[in-house]
Amino acid sequence: MIPSTLPPPIVIAAPEHRRLSDLAAAAEQAMPDVAEFLIAELDRAAIVAPDALPGDVVRMNAAVTFRDEERGDVRRVTLVYPGQQDLAAGTLSVLTPVGVALLGLSVGQSISWLTRLGRRKRLTVLAVEAAG
Length: 132
Prior knowledge:
There is one protein chain. By secondary structure, this protein is α/β, with parallel strands linked by helices. It has a single domain, classed as Transcription elongation factor, GreA/GreB, C-terminal domain (Chitinase A, domain 3, Roll). 25% of the residues lie in helices and 28% in strands. The protein contains three helices and seven strands. It has a five-stranded mixed sheet. The protein has a two-stranded parallel sheet with strand order 1-2. A hairpin with a 5-residue loop joins strand 3 and strand 4.
């Protein structure tokens, strides 16, 4: 099966959407590529009330297990805001290309994204654990 070049539908809770929109705007000067990617993802997202967000959707402070489709590696990270990232503790900033790619995806969805070096990668979400 040939993977779709269209990004999968994503969903984001309204309060996170507002906070992430502000974050993307603030990051435009320092990190234009990542900020542009985040803005594009926020623009195409379905925005819902927090209590309407399905439990299998990647949201802020959720633990997500995903597979790198190129290498087959499986990773588990918690998606966090900048300043909270600690790779040794398994947290990943939403202001990274892979962090933006994960945002709003549901279990079973795959997405292609570009690394900071411009290399195309693809990942698939395997599991999501919402923050307690």
